[in-house]
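Our preliminary data section would be incomplete without showing what the modeling component actually yields. Below, a chain of 139 amino acids is followed by its predicted structure, encoded as tokens that our downstream tools consume directly.
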Amino acid sequence: MADTTVAFVCVQNAGRSQMAYAFAQREVSERGIGSDIELLTGGTRPADHVHEEAVEAMAAVGIDIADRTPREITIEETSESDYVITMGCSADDVCPAGWGGDNRDWNLDDPDGKSPDAVAAIRDDIQSRVRAMFDELDV
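Predicted structure:
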């Protein structure tokens, strides 16, 4: 069982949280800490599919998220997480109360409908934040 659980949460789980989750998976793999950390991602009102802008932006850095499906995150999952990272998506209005652990809001722009350059900037910001978070975690 993992020592630390990190959940990446957004409303639709179709852009920012999917990118953060993919970067976190890569960090776990590269750092060799798969047995120490569990990663979750989900939305409070998941979309039908991951936004094409996010898929294309991640493909540009060698990460394929085209086959991912947005999913609903449960109150149990968030309350049992050590870290709940929201993406700046009006979390106060839609996200479950009573989350456990350390709750952080990254306040990121929604990439849906943005230009490729704007989505790349959001992606790069997410990658930097994920890397910094893993540098901070004691796993």
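The first helix runs from residue 16 to 31. Helices lie at 16-31, 52-59, 75-79, 91-94, 116-136. Preliminary results of this kind motivate Aim 1 of the renewal.
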